[in-house]
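Why this split exists: single-chain examples teach little about how molecules sit against one another. For that reason, every record in the complexes split bundles all components of an assembly together and asks for one structure covering all of them. Below is a record exactly as it appears in the raw files.
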Amino acid sequence: MYQFNSGFELLELTRKYNMPISEVVINYEHEMTGNDREIIINKMKANLDVMRKAIEKGLKDDIKSVGGFIGGDAKRLYDKIINNFTISGETVSKAVASAIAVSEVNASMGKIVAAPTAGSSGVIPGALITIARKFGKSDDELIRSLFTSSGIGIIIAKNSTLSGAEGGCQAEVGSASAMAAAALVELMGGSPDESLNAASFAIMNLLGLVCDPVAGLVEVPCVTRNAIGTANALICADLALSGMKSIIPFDDVISAMDSVGKMMPCALKETAEGGLANTTTGIKFKMNFSED
Amino acid sequence: MNLREYSVFDIMGPIMVGPSSSHTAGAARLGKIARQIAGDDIKDVQFMLYDSFASTYKGHGTDKALVAGILGLDPDDDRLPRSFELAKEQNISVSFMKSDKDAQHPNTVRIIIKNTSGDVTDVLGSSIGGGNVVLKEINGMNVEFTGEYETLITEHIDKPGIIAMVTKVLAEYKINIAFMRVYRQLKGDNAIMVIESDQVIPEDVSISIERINGIEKAIVINSIKNTY
């Protein structure tokens, strides 16, 4: 039996069967759907292909979002990387540029994988694909790490929410960042415990983040939040891999996120009635959009 | 903790055209379900948008997604952003209106479809997050289904024996019923039955069911969740 409802149960399974998180999650999916392993792996490979294409498109093309607030920034950042001109260095900048690329493709009605949502779709591909390339990891390993991510996402979905409308941006970009951080740890040879530590740090760092999209569109501040979610995942994975432990266990961190989400006023949960959306400028943009 | 069982691909997925699972992917699914209820022969479609759908539809491509769904496109179809041109090529006229009335859910749309013979189908549905949808009204009758399962919808006269005959046909085809609900306005008046199944419901089934005396129409709506 590979059912798990919490981080604790997931860790128990990795110990019981002596396998990484990704393998438990693949077995969970097989058990739940009855589908063969090969079909499950191929379905994830299809996700990876879409993620890769979105990154390529976003780094290469001059993208303009539907709302017109964003576009072309992934490409501009990438040019700075090529010219060796970034403050945060090649690895972080490349991961961030890739995440922004996916977010821009999303905002321009391009094809993406909701991971776990469309608004947060840049974080996981940005972090995982960039780091896999840097360390010469195979596609098989990369696909495995996407299952690790999904395992973390399943636990969050079961115990809290992945939706900005219910839990604010912490539930979207925060979750994506935790999912990416845990997967990076496994990709780099860390233990399941270290994966959950990384996921805990990632959510702690973004706890309380509100969802306040300007004019209600998935553009501002979604794109830059995808950037920080990605950089955060890299940093949290490094911290966990170097042995830093979260004194608050992952399941408690998720319950904290859940209660913070419930305390958050509706105006800060995707309704575009608070935060950046409700600034003088934000309101002006909102008015422009509703007059048509 | 919620009791829902999540597939890995509920979390890592769906593959979709952006920018929003609720405002774009869900809208396309609502359009596609409405098309399956109305039939292929579509001439004119009016969309009445409520609440958040009304205020942000342009920036989210909700309009393009709804039209794409009407044309039978899935949320991951690359042609979704060009749906207006495609509708024009197929001589389907589309129009959008905003309602200032309250809907129970912010992302709600009423879709009024006219076919070439002048028949009208009126469907109300909401996009409830993550690309998931709920259908709430068909031709003025309150219903509730999600399209996650293979769904059989019948329009029939509310009289004894109809339901037994329908389930008999399903049994003959060895189709297991997961959920079943019957809706009616008045006793002895028109009624709608919604049957959801895990199995694919072949077209023969709806044809056999339409032969039952008292059944006016039987429609099969394919699951929107083709996860594998």
